[in-house]
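Researcher: Re-running this chain for the archive, since the previous output was lost when a drive failed. Same request as before.
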Amino acid sequence: MIAKPQIQPMNPQEYLEWEKQQPIKYEYVHGKIYAMTGGSLGHNSIALNLASALKNHLRGKGCKVFMADAKVGISEKGPFYYPDVMVTCDDRDLNARQIVYHPYLIIEVLSPGTANFDQGRKFRNYRQINTLKEYVLIETETMNVDSYRLNEKGKWELTSYSIEESNYNQIDQEVYFTSVDFHCLLSLIYEDVVFLE
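Model: Regenerated structure tokens:
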């Protein structure tokens, strides 16, 4: 989640050095830094559920799964973000220590304060990563997953998985992340999430 930007602009190297000394994480976009704020328990459960399931699925397949403390760089000059979950299977990232530059899959769990940014500007920036095959947005207030996939013509296509708020007892749906050939039920993604009545 992103809070208000700090006042002092920085170049990418200054940001990377400065952030190492900070007690909290900051994202970097075009010279400005943004403090990361905490998410809800539902947000945390969704990210943990997916990261755990993806880690089990990809074990031994030459891929790495990262969660909230792992930074992705659009380029060496930024922007730099902290996705909720990401997967890289690119050899260039397998020995990375600070920043992932070649993810296949990025997942953002939406919050009311970040949803517009995650769906708009952040997605426009993520699309500049030439290895990215899939971008997934997950709502926390309702069971809805939107998966944007890069098709063979280089266009991003949307596939949605949803259970209507009015009927959480309807038949579960299978979700498929094509970028890493991962199938799971929508209910697994939302396991332990408590919805408002």
